[in-house]
Design goal:
By secondary structure, this protein is α+β, with helices and mostly antiparallel strands. It folds into two domains: 138 residues, Lipocalin (Beta Barrel); 99 residues, no CATH class. Helices cover 20% and strands 42% of the residues. The protein contains five helices and 16 strands. The chain has an eight-stranded antiparallel β-barrel with strand order 1-2-3-4-5-6-7-8. An eight-stranded antiparallel β-sheet has the order 11-10-9-16-15-14-13-12. A hairpin with a 5-residue loop joins strand 10 and strand 11. Helix 2 runs parallel beside helix 4.
């Protein structure tokens, strides 16, 4: 019974003031602006920095739950109705105001920072890990298609990066992951980095994207032994060009 009043109030407020039903907020929403910026073929770190930090929201109004991911950490919170919007509250006193502007979800932090999110189409299954929907869309937009090795071992081979983290055509590795946030971003010291592995054994690499050219470098640690690793581009391993 304790949920009945808030939900009824939410239906009244959201329906009357914003012409949106509570269930219109439901589902997974991704940071399409960050994906579009990255898809231009330049620095991934810059695209995420300018359009982050939150990359994905998952909202369930019936259970008054909201979760978000920044590509490294996830947070689960509760929803309450607040005038013509929802307020998502999280541990530590953090909150965000959620509103709908047409088909877009607007999330405004306590500091006043506003981010815009697009509903993922199609919607993922309910048990899909938080953050993975954004990740798949980013991988497809940023590295999708055929790449040819024009310099380095395997020259002439066609390389394909899939949206589920597999890679074919590169000599050695068969899985990859782009660094989105967290420790790997800190250690990258402003450089774009990715993880390449095979049989659960791998290492970080630095990459530079310039339009249809992708350079992959060995990651050189410039920090002292007692310091957090700081990775800089070392020897260039591959140059790939998009067909």
């Amino acid at each position: 019974m304790r949920h009945a009043l808030p939900l009824a109030l939410a239906a009244l407020l959201l329906g009357g003031c914003a012409s949106h039903k509570p269930e219109d907020f439901n589902g997974t929403w991704i940071n399409q602006e960050a994906i579009d910026a990255a898809a231009k073929g330049t620095s991934l770190r810059q695209a995420l920095s300018e359009h982050g930090p939150v990359l994905e929201w998952k909202i369930d109004t019936a259970n008054q739950q909201a979760s978000y991911s920044n590509g490294f950490e996830a947070a689960d919170g509760s929803l309450v109705a607040s005038e013509d919007q929802w307020q998502a509250n999280f541990a530590g006193g953090q909150s965000a105001e959620l509103t709908l502007d047409g088909k877009e979800l607007e999330a405004t932090s306590q500091s006043g920072t506003k981010q815009v999110f697009a509903r993922s189409e199609p919607q993922p299954a309910s048990n899909t890990p938080l953050g993975s929907t954004f990740e798949k869309a980013l991988y497809k937009a940023y590295l999708g298609g055929d790449w040819k090795i024009v310099e380095g071992q395997g020259q002439g081979a066609v390389v394909r990066f899939t949206d589920n983290g597999t890679v074919s055509g590169l000599p050695g590795p068969d899985r990859y992951a782009l660094c989105l946030a967290g420790d790997c971003a800190t250690m990258g010291a402003g450089n774009d980095s990715l993880w390449l592995e095979r049989d659960q054994r791998g290492a970080p690499w630095i990459f530079k994207r310039d339009g249809d050219t992708l350079e992959i470098f060995q990651a050189q640690n410039t920090a002292q032994p007692d310091e957090m690793p700081q990775l800089a581009p070392g020897a260039r391993q591959w140059v790939l060009e998009k067909d």
